[in-house]
Amino acid sequence: MALCSYCFEEKGTGTQCHRCGYDEESVGGQQGPELPPATRLIEGKYLVGRVLGVGGFGITYLGYDSRLKVKVAVKEFFPRHLVTRVAGSSTVRPHDEKAAEEFAEGLRRFLREAQTAARLDSHPHVVPVKDFFEENGTAYIVMGYIDGQSLADYLERQPGKRLPFRKALDIFLPILDALESIHRAKLLHRDVSPENIYLTVDGLVKLLDFGAARPTMTKGDASATVSIKEGYAPVEQYSKKGRQGPWTDIYATAAALYRTLTGTMPPASLERLSHDTLVPPSRLESDIPARAERALLKALALHPEDRYQQVSVFRREMAAAAQRNVLTMLTADRRIPALVVIMVLAALLGIKLYLDSNRREEIPPEAMRFIGKDAEGNPIPHAEVRNQTDPAKPLRESVSTPKKKKKKQPAVGKTSSPKGVAVTVSPEEEEEEEETPPPGNARNVQPADKVLFVKPNAPRGDPADLFRQGLGFERAGNRRKAFEYYEAACDQKYAVACYQAAKTASDQRLFTTSRLLFAQECKEGKAYACTNYGIMLANGEGGAKDAAKARETLEHACGLKQTVACLRLAGLWEKGEGGVDDPSVAARYYKQACELNAKEGCRRYADLLAAGKTTEKDGKKAATYYYWRACSLGDASSCQKQSSTGGKKK
Question: Which of 36, 104, 461, 554 is the most exposed, having the fewest neighbouring CB atoms within 10 Å of its CB?
Answer without folding.
Answer: 104
